[in-house]
Design a protein that fits this description.
single chain; mainly alpha; Arc Repressor Mutant, subunit A; 11 helices; 53% helix
Length: 223
């Protein structure tokens, strides 16, 4: 065996770039950008520009700082993207009447039309990126990828905060899950006088029945 082959076999994991998760994530991002430019909006829009427009389509009247939190970008990068979109008349910026130092960002009718027109192409691009994986593998991959982003969120140059509150620490010190973040708040129910009387009557103590011992069949079903 030659010295060259011996040195190749002695290479430790992590020494080559293919053993480094950071490089693989970067390479996957390059592949995604290439797919996006090839298949979405005739190559006239980057993924980050389309993402910003998508945010304004669902969350109008937000400022540049909030957009940065939604995308995980600093103000300088957001300002450059906004300028390019504004020059194409896809967004507009107006002064907040309640705070003259703050500018509100809005997607124009042209911008909203563009988001809707290329939505299916964008979805197809995401599916194509994950197409080498089976459906269960895609779910696992997205779960693990989301976990890595959430757990390492504070290590980035800017924190990612979708909807202004994602990845916020919970009372236990762990990060909030995506389901908890996006879950709607409970509606406030107004009670009438008759409903309060019914609730008061039902709150009176009643005679409790003796517990019934479950049979073996029912116990088996619970297990």
């Amino acid at each position: 065996m030659s010295k060259q082959s011996e040195s190749a076999e002695s290479v430790k994991p992590g020494y080559t770039i293919w053993d480094r998760p950071g490089y693989l994530v970067r390479r996957l991002h390059q592949i995604h950008v290439a797919m996006f430019l090839e298949n979405v909006a005739n190559g006239e829009m980057t993924p980050i520009q389309y993402g910003l427009l998508s945010i304004l389509a669902t969350r109008p009247n937000i400022d540049q700082f909030t957009i940065g939190e939604e995308l995980g970008l600093d103000r300088a990068n957001v300002a450059g993207i906004l300028q390019r979109l504004e020059s194409r008349k896809l967004i507009s910026r107006v002064v907040d009447p309640e705070n003259r130092r703050r500018k509100i960002c809005l997607a124009t009718p042209k911008g909203l039309t563009l988001v809707k027109r290329y939505d299916q192409q964008m979805q197809d691009c995401q599916k194509r990126l994950l197409s080498p994986l089976s459906p269960p593998e895609r779910d696992t991959f997205m779960t693990l990828l989301s976990r890595l982003v959430e757990e390492n969120n504070e290590s980035g140059r800017t924190s990612l905060k979708p909807n202004g509150e994602a990845f916020a620490p919970t009372q236990t010190g762990k990060r909030a899950s995506r389901d908890k973040i996006t879950s709607p708040t409970k509606p406030v129910v107004k009670t009438t006088r008759s409903a309060r009387k019914t609730a008061k009557a039902s709150s009176k103590p009643t005679q409790t029945a003796k517990p019934v011992k479950p049979n073996r069949a029912a116990k088996t079903q619970q297990i």
